[in-house]
What we know:
The complex is a heterodimer. By secondary structure, chain A is an all-alpha fold. Chain A is 63% helix and 2% strand.
Amino acid sequence: MYNYVEDGDSKTTAYVEEDQEKYEQFMARIEAGEKIEADDWMPTEYRQALIKLISMHGISEIMGALPEKEWTPKAPTLRRKLGIMAKVQDEMGHGQLLLRVAEDLMKPYGKTRENLMEDLLNGDLKFHNVFHMPTKTWADAGMVGWLVDGAAIMSQTNMLDASYGPYQRALQRICQEEVFHAQHGEAIIMALAEGTDYQREILQESLNRWWPALLMFFGPSSAATTGSSKQDIMIKYRVRKSTNEELRQAFLDKYLPRVFSLGLTVPDETVHYDEKEGKWIYQQPDWNEFKQIIRNKGPRSKERLRLREIAYENNRWVRQALVPETIGS
Amino acid sequence: MTVVENAEQAKKDPSYLKALTELVYQLADDDFIISFRGAEWLGLAPHIEEDVAFSSITQNTMGHAVMFYELLEELGEGNADVLAHERTLEQRRNGIYLEKRNGEGAYHEEPYYDWALAVVRNYFYETFKKIKMEAISTSSYKPLANVASKALMEQTYHLAHWKMWMNQLQHATEDARERINSRIEEAWSEFEDVLELGSYANDMLKHQLISSEDYLKEAWLKEVGVNIANPPESPLGKKYGSGRNGVHTADLKQALQTFAEVYNSDKKAVW
Lengths: 329, 271
């Protein structure tokens, strides 16, 4: 599960003089639908944007396993335990797959996975806004599978034809697995929706809490909202096709009718489909809050990062044992 | 050997049924609790590849527990979910060492988990599980023998995984060796009840459900003896008693509260 975080405070990439002839050849290749491989020449801007996108995606998969992990030992039936265990394992697998892709791209800069983990812990590498949110009840485990993964499928499907081959191939596999996750989430939600008063209550409460985070999921519609946006670069380089707002509209198209048909509501009285404009009208989430969240000032940012930090520190002896030659001998 | 083909046949002999259900409870509860402890590790393993591998093993092991609980359901013990979630501490049959907490802290808050414990515990357990599953794969109770054969297909890889960790860490830094050795010493004084079959061991043997306790124990000692650089000289012990007879620690109590939290929040509910 994932999405690209549109952060508002990314450092401006230094302008790099590119070899114009190589650049034109490169653009011709991607415009002809060719895939770029790790060792191929690529513009610095492309490489840097990909590193940012893919490392963020990979680390979000890993951080994304943590909210669900909170409910894995508590899953209420044996079948649900198996389902959620399989799911979190997949998410870790996605993280691993993507970090490998990012590592290859970072090679020219001499950066490794260790650096990515350090960047995560010191706040330079962001993870997706939804994974900064608390999970308070079992309904949240369903909500993450159903709507968060549902949203992730949309944004990933948008990149299934990405110009960078290694990423595009990783996404093929990830999307296949994400479909199962969304079904797993939907099954949990259905059981709750058809269940006791208590179950319906925790379901509605969960949706109310997740709604703003789900709207934020796709990022602001333009750079004007948060100060910067990488969506234009990503479209120019044929990494993605649709804009943030187009994806959000597709998400609302798909899921709002389902939400309403289950007898659920969303905490936005103004939400409606405008036939004339052919789009959903909704109340904007608080984009200032979004900026705070992805700067690791969200409700659970510190605690989730703390888990990784403890794991990192606590297992130092294991890493040293695996690579004894590096430990100051 | 008289082969018992299904639950209906097993139910005809009360002595057979009792020995069989006792054995299956032990198998189910062992896999369930070690898988629960494994699930608590998710996201905290030494590296991402290990998180992927460990969670895969944990998930398989929970799958084995489910197959055992379903055997119990067929044998008339009640619904598998009820068996997993509602039985009291005294009704649990898992070895006590398997319920031990992963380290200090809780899985969602300040988890100072010890990888040396994870490696030693899982290596010891999976080594024994292989011996036990092999013994059960020729059990007189056909459905159980089938589950054991199925479990062995996956379990072989689980054991290989933990054996690799044992070998690596025992032959790595001084620090790693010490940490592993100290966890081996600890396990040595606690592991014995895992190797035992409880008060119905003789009936289990008589009904040809599994090999003798002595055989299982010796086979395990021989196998781990090959892979432990310095096996403890003291005899094996069961410091906290025998989980096979329903004796358990506060650590299992904590686990029961956690894994049945949602289940208990609305028992009328279908989840």
